[in-house]
Amino acid sequence: MRRVGENHAPHLQRQNSRSSVLLDQMRVRARRLVLPLLLLVIPLQSWTRSNVMTMYKQDRETEVAREDVEQLEPQESDSDDSPDTERSALSLPVGLQVAVFDLAGTTLDDMVDGQPMAVKAIQRSFELNGLFVETADVTRVRGLRKREAIRRLCQQFIPPVDTSPANKSAERDELESMLVDKIFSDFNTALDDTLQNGQLQEVKGTSDTFKACRQLGIKIFIGSGFERKVMQEVVDRLGWEVDGIVAASRPEPDAILEAMNIAQVVDPQRVFKVGDTVADVDEGRNAGVWTVAVLTGTQSESDIRRAAPDFVIPSVLELRDLLPDPQYPEGETADEHSSDAETEDVPATAPDEGQPFEHDSNALSSYSSGNA
User: Fold this and answer.
1) Kind and range of the H or E element at 290?
2) How far apart are CA 257 and CA 271, in angstroms?
3) Average pLDDT over residues 156-183
4) What is the pLDDT of residues 11-64, one digit of tens each?
5) Would you call 96 helix, strand, or coil by DSSP?
6) How would you classify the pairing of strands 115-116 and 111-112?
7) Comparing C-alpha atoms, which of 290, 355, 270 is closest to residue 98?
8) pLDDT tier at 125 (50, 70, 90 boundaries)?
9) Quick check: 179 and 154 in contact, CB under 8 A?
10) 3-state secondary structure of 256
11) Could you give the CA distance from residue 324 to residue 328 in angstroms, rounded to a whole number?
12) CA nearest to 238, candidates 113, 117, 107, 142
């Protein structure tokens, strides 16, 4: 008599064997999948960890930078000296001795029939020679010495010379020189006619600004790309009292250096230049002096700001707001005055004569952007 289940034993063995085979196959397949998954997961974990760390570092750096800025920002104070402290950050330093002012567009209102006097004279001189130049082209070379401005404008009219390379440059230079000489002569004639027949007037506030400079002991010079006789005639007709007239060769700093030599000033940090063109700013920067740009000329504010002057103001009238307060002795700023007032038994001392001032680039840029 058979036991119960004996007939099923072989069948169960076959099922178990088949199950074992299936399990083995599944293990093999699993092992084959694990390696590619690991190859994907491990770099992903690494990339995620790296990004998280980078984001954390960036956030931390931003927090640190914000803390630094907050520490650098001036703190509000109930002290009576706070207006003076603010003014010192928005003004030229005490102890300035020389100011070099541009003429047309800065101190001289040179508009004639709705067009700048120099631009009109240059265009007229080209027309007399059968040539035409756009107002925008003339505007771009404003601030340069007038002969140099005309030379650059003439470049477009000099035809190419079809000769050997050895003679090409010399022949082209000769043609250019002849054309420049003729147009420059016509320009001076046109300018003289304009000066004689036109009514001259200063940019509003010029005389008052000159007076404010003189009260601080600052010597005033007029520097321009015009000929000296033209500048002298303008100064005489407007009744300005100046210490000298200097011919500019912008962007070279010759005029500023000449003014410093006349005034016997060695330190460029005791000098500032005021003008309405990029060339004016470049001239001042090349001389190492303070630069003040005014927006009363024909060049755009964006172009002038790209030249990076120390200050940008609407007109020469606002220059008085940049001048240091005469209540502080030479060599002392409002910041020093404020701190000395709060410190007992510490006498204020002025620097030695000739000691240079240091530009405060943060203060300068903040004022410039605030007076666009």
Assistant:
1) strand 290-294
2) 10
3) 77
4) 556 666 666 777 777 776 766 665 565 555 555 555 555 555 555 555 555 555
5) coil
6) antiparallel
7) 270
8) very high
9) yes
10) helix
11) 8
12) 107
Question: Hey, is 115 helix, strand or coil?
Answer: strand
Nearest to 99 by CA among 278, 294, 236, 300: 294
Q: How far is CA 252 from CA 215, 247, 345, in A?
A: 30, 11, 48
Q: CA geometry: angle at 160 spanning 154 and 163, to 5°?
A: 135
**CA–CA dist 343, 320 (Å, integer):** 30
Q: What average pLDDT does the segment 256-267 reach?
A: 97
Domains in the chain with CATH codes:
92-107+203-346+358-370 (3.40.50.1000), 111-197 (1.10.150)
Confidence (pLDDT) at 350? 36
Helices 254-263 and 278-287 pack at an angle, to 10 degrees, of: 50
* Stronger pLDDT, 85 or 169, i.e. the higher one: 169
Whether the pTM exceeds 0.85: the reply is no
Find residue 250's DSSP bridge partners.
none
Inter-helix orientation angle 117-127/165-197, to 10°: 130
| Distances, alpha carbon 66 to alpha carbons 70, 91, 201, 362, in Å | 6, 26, 50, 16
C-alpha–C-alpha distance, residues 264 and 248, integer Å: 19
User: Residues 69-90: pLDDT tens digits?
Assistant: 444 444 444 444 433 333 334 7
Question: In whole angstroms, what is the distance from residue 365 CA to residue 370 CA?
Answer: 8
Tokens of 220: 């005033």
Contact (Cβ atoms closer than 8 angstroms) between residue 323 and residue 216: yes
Question: For 196-245, what is each residue's pLDDT tens digit?
Answer: 777 889 999 999 999 999 999 999 999 998 889 999 999 999 999 999 99
